[in-house]
Every structure is written in structure tokens, then in C-alpha cells.
Amino acid sequence: MAVRRLAPAEQQPKAFAFTAENLDWAKGQIAKYPDGRQASAVIPLLWRAQEQAGGWVPQKAIEHVAEVLGMPTIRVLEVATFYTMFNLEPVGRLHVQLCGTTPCVLRGADALKKICHEKIGHEHHVTADGTFSWVEVECLGACVNAPMAQINYDYYEDLSPENFTKLLDDLAAGRPVKTGPQIDRQLSAPVGGPTTLTGDVGTGAPATPQEPALADSDAKRPGAAGNVREEPTPKPPAGDGSRGRRSTRRE
Ligand code: FES
């Protein structure tokens, strides 16, 4: 892991302030926390600042977030420099985060790194037309489909020099691309289809026809928000024999 520093002064904008819409949104985030705990909103506010600034966090944005949250600037700087999700220098319209951790390297990430050097230049460099930048990152948690890269908000997996080159060309040209596995694989299932439990259990007979396989887009369909709580289990009616039974539930 390299030392993470702010971009040099000549790249820093002279000012930064949230747009009216983003400021309203920021106030909504801050209101989620109890009085005196507004600093807890630092990560979502830095993320929104990064989006507003075009994919990176300038020094003035860090100072602005500190001001909005009533925090010392150094505390916000600590967060921005610790988490690699915050880019500290300008990035291209398509920012490639190439995984360079062992499983991806064993599956060919070095060849992809060479392509990044050839097509984009050295790490952190933004191409002259502003289209691409790239950086090597640690494991992004998709090792089962290694090697992989994240480009802006999407993962692209099962990369090879050929499909990675085409992917970069298609993205740059605005052509539609497929996210997720770039080979004929359903999500992270075995290549070529199921390899286990392929017959009827017990009989060994051939499998009965199955539902059509899930597509990537189905799997990414948003479900209930993580903070939605389940309904509590209804209490048993009085007199059903459960009186006096010791409950382990916390009310
Ligand atoms: S090692 Fe590359 S995603 Fe985990």
C-alpha cells in the first residue's frame, strides 16, 4: 500500500462547496445521527463530495465537509486518506481499479496490468482526453471470478487480455457492455454449468428440467434496505400453555 497524499497544489481547485441539492441531501444524512454525533456522517458526505468533484476529493472538499459537520479538518483528512475508496487526485471519466492481489495475479492480472500501462499510461495518470485513469488495488472480493477490475461503479470479472482490451474500447466508445463475468458463466457458478447435484437426489436419475438461470441483472435487483427491521414474532395468546415458560427473547 502506497502512502496516500493529497494531489499537488497545482491540481487543487481554489474552492469547493456542495450544490444546494447536495447540501440538502447532506443535512438529511446528518439528521440520521443523534445530537453531538454528526461526525458519523463523514463518510457519506465525503462520498457525495467526491461525486460532485468528478470522482476525487480535493483539499477544499475536505475542508468544506469539516465545516458542514463542525469537525476539525484533520479528522476529515484522516478519513479521506485512510479509505482507498476516496481518490485523492483527479481521475478519468472511466477509472479502472485493477485487482493485484494473489488470486487475481495467479489468474493473469499481470497481463491486464500491462494493458493498462499500454493503453492508459502509468498508475494515477489521466489520459489526455480525460477518458481513462487506473490504479492497482487490493482484493475487491470477487476472487472466485479472478482476474477482475472495477470500473467506476461496476465489476468486470473473468478478464483476459482480449476481453479486457475490448471492454476498455467499448466503454470509451460508449458502446453497451456486460457487467460481471465476461465469459459464459452464471454469476460465480462453475464455468460450463453445475458440476454437483446434477441428478435427482437418491435415484441418480438425470436432473429434471429447471427454472431458467438467473441473469446478472436479476441478482443485482435491490431488495429491502438493510436497516428495515423484521416484524417481531407475535406473542402467543394467553392460556395456550406457555405461561410460566422461560423466555430467552429480549423485549
Ligand atoms: S484477489 Fe482479486 S478480487 Fe480477490
What does this protein look like?
The chain has 251 residues and is an alpha/beta fold. Among the domains are: 9-82, NADH-quinone oxidoreductase subunit E (Arc Repressor Mutant, subunit A), CATH 1.10.10; 94-181, Glutaredoxin. The protein has helices spanning 20-30, 42-52, 59-69, 73-82, 102-106, 109-119, 161-173, 216-219, and strands at 94-99, 132-137, 149-151, 154-157, 180-181. A hairpin with a 2-residue loop joins strand 3 (149-151) and strand 4. Helix 2 (42-52) packs antiparallel against helix 3 and helix 3 packs across helix 4. The longest helix has 13 residues, at 161-173. The radius of gyration is 24 Å and the shape is flat. The relative contact order is 0.08. Residues 242-251 have low confidence and may be disordered. Bound molecules: FE2/S2 (inorganic) cluster (FES). FE2/S2 (inorganic) cluster binds at residues 99, 101, 103-104, 139-143, 146, 148.
